[in-house]
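Quick one, probably user error.
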């Protein structure tokens, strides 16, 4: 994943903003966060390395856009058209825009937006029920291809069943607040949203506990460094199992993914070793190269040839954690569970089986 902050600075507009981390961090440098200004990274998607290739590549996906401001803030109205142009130009990148200003969306889209750019996800932040009921109807009715919800910092019990029922929400994240003045996150609120997601078949992710966390009536003060791992330990992330058929349908629409095939020498290798051995190799590659929470060379760990499983990984979007997020909605930054590793192996073996059956 990559972060692109074309501008910096913001204004607090809702309760979730109270302990905004941008303000907190700028405050330690004596910087005024309410001044919105363009950054040196304004044209990051167009920046190139010395050898002329782009600095950001598809392996960096998703590109989290505007993390120290709000994409739809008024001050940026004059700059945004240029940003849309870059997003349009870099169709190989997927831009993830998280906003508390979905109400400005229709005033901010470019003339050729149509029913949305395919490479943009709009994620509406709703910290409580009131914000959810204000913002989610706007999110749902706007022309957007990919929609997500974030409850962070989650400030109360939230019911989003009727929004999930639209079938238009692709992902929901819950998290607490960090910092000295953090407000309480009640575990029961998180579990409730999880249940709503499970019933609706929408992926759910518990990102972090925040600094002040209550579970079974007991309050925990959780240090910053443990907030993500404690959430992971809860083991409540949810990923609805997509049918393999639907997955292969989706993959077949990508000319990049569907361009990978086993060569004759690969088939020979599979025949020689047998499917069981290949599956063992797959399990081993996944455990070592894809499963760890942190992978130093993530995005570059899967060679383009040398083993049928490598080809299968590129063909099925399981080559790196960025592709795994994009194609399988499995979040990066946390270790893959045994269940998730089994799933990846199943996908890989199915692809190989299909290739072997081809004439
Ligand atoms: S919208 Fe986001 S960046 Fe802006 S003040 Fe609120 S929390 Fe901070
Ligand atoms: Zn990849």
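Nope, works fine. Designed sequence:
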């Amino acid at each position: 994943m990559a972060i692109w902050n074309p501008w910096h600075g913001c204004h607090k507009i809702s309760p979730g903003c109270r302990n905004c981390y941008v303000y907190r961090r700028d405050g330690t440098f004596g910087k005024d966060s309410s001044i919105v200004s363009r950054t040196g990274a304004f044209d990051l998607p167009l920046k190139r390395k010395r050898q002329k290739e782009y600095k950001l590549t598809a392996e960096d996906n998703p590109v989290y856009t505007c993390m120290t401001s709000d994409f739809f803030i008024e001050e940026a109205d004059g700059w945004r058209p240029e940003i849309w142009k870059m997003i349009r130009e870099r169709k190989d990148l997927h831009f993830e825009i998280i906003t508390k200003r979905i109400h400005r969306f229709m005033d901010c889209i470019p003339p050729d937006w149509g029913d949305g750019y395919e490479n943009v996800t709009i994620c509406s932040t709703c910290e409580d029920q009131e914000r959810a009921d204000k913002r989610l109807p706007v999110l749902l009715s706007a022309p957007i291809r990919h929609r997500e919800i974030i409850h962070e910092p989650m400030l109360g019990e939230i019911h989003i069943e009727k929004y999930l029922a639209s079938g238009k929400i692709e992902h929901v994240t819950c998290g607490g607040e960090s910092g000295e003045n953090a407000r309480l996150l009640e575990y029961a609120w998180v579990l409730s949203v999880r249940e709503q997601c499970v019933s609706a078949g929408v992926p759910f992710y518990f990102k972090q506990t925040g600094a002040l966390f209550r579970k079974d009536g007991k309050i925990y003060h959780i240090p910053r460094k443990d907030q993500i791992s404690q959430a992971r330990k809860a083991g409540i992330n949810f990923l609805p199992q997509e049918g393999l058929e639907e997955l292969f349908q989706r993959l077949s629409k990508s000319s990049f993914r569907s361009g990978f095939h086993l060569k004759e020498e690969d088939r020979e290798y599979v025949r020689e070793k047998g499917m069981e051995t290949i599956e063992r190799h797959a399990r081993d590659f996944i455990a070592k190269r894809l499963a760890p929470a942190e992978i130093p060379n993530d995005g570059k760990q899967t060679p383009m040839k040398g083993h049928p499983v490598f080809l299968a990984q590129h063909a099925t979007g399981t080559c790196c954690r960025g592709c795994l997020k994009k194609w399988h909605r499995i979040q990066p930054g946390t270790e893959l569970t045994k269940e998730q590793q089994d799933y990846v192996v199943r996908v890989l073996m199915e692809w190989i089986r299909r290739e072997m059956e081809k004439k």
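Residues 338-357 form the longest helix (20 residues).
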